[in-house]
Amino acid sequence: MKKILSVCLLIAGYFNSSAQETKISITGSIERPLGSFSSTHTLGVQAAVNFVRSSDTSKHHIFQFTFKAGGGYFFGRTVAPADYPYTYPGYTIIYTGAGIRFEPVNRLNGSLTTGPGISFYNKTTRFDWVSNLTLAYDVSEKVSIGPRIQMIKEFGADALWTAGLQVTFHL
């Protein structure tokens, strides 16, 4: 836990240095669980805050460093095996991650982030590793929209996969 806290503080210090500009955005998404995760959960909603660091705003940078912190909730599915309805508990995830943002051309960008997370399911808490791959098209100067894929890897269990549609508001 101390190592995770130390890394988060180092990243926060990097984003607070005055030599570079930090762009902040807020993302909301609707997620659809994939694979075995879809047999126990229906839809999910997620929100995240994204920080992108640029060293020189007058130039177009194809690759930039990014940091993300967010969370989500997935609604449990109701099933009726043997004529007894059962609703799976909701699944909550809180995560942080750092990675690369790439912008090959203006108005089109993507990011790949990975980092630690913590999940809450059926009154248990687990540490996870969360990876996000996103693409976005800027529909205006302040709003972008695009698909995303997320992998949540709980230690000792199969990975949980989700796909969704995100809307990002640039502050």
The helix count comes to: 1
| CATH architectural label | Beta Barrel
Task: Characterize the largest beta sheet: strand count, sense, and whether it forms a barrel.
Answer: 8 strands, antiparallel, barrel
Q: Kindly, what is the distance between the CA atoms of the first and last residues, rounded to a whole number of angstroms?
A: 31 Å
Shape: elongated
Radius of gyration: 18 Å
User: Count of DSSP E strands?
Assistant: 10
Helix amount: under 10%
Order of strands side by side in the largest beta sheet? Answer: 1-2-3-6-7-8-9-10
Q: What is the average of the pLDDT values? A: 85
Which percent band covers the strand fraction? over 45%
CATH uppermost class: Mainly Beta
Can you put this structure into words, describing what you see?
This protein has one helix spanning 2-16; strands spanning 21-34, 41-54, 63-76, 78-79, 86-87, 91-105, 108-121, 124-138, 143-154, 159-170. The model has no long low-confidence stretch (mean pLDDT 85). The strands form two sheets. The chain has an eight-stranded antiparallel β-barrel with strand order 1-2-3-6-7-8-9-10. Strands 4-5 form a two-stranded antiparallel sheet. It has 171 residues and is mainly β.
List the SSEs and their pairings.
Elements: H1 2-16, E1 21-34, E2 41-54, E3 63-76, E4 78-79, E5 86-87, E6 91-105, E7 108-121, E8 124-138, E9 143-154, E10 159-170
Antiparallel strand pairs: 1-2, 1-10, 2-3, 3-6, 4-5, 6-7, 7-8, 8-9, 9-10
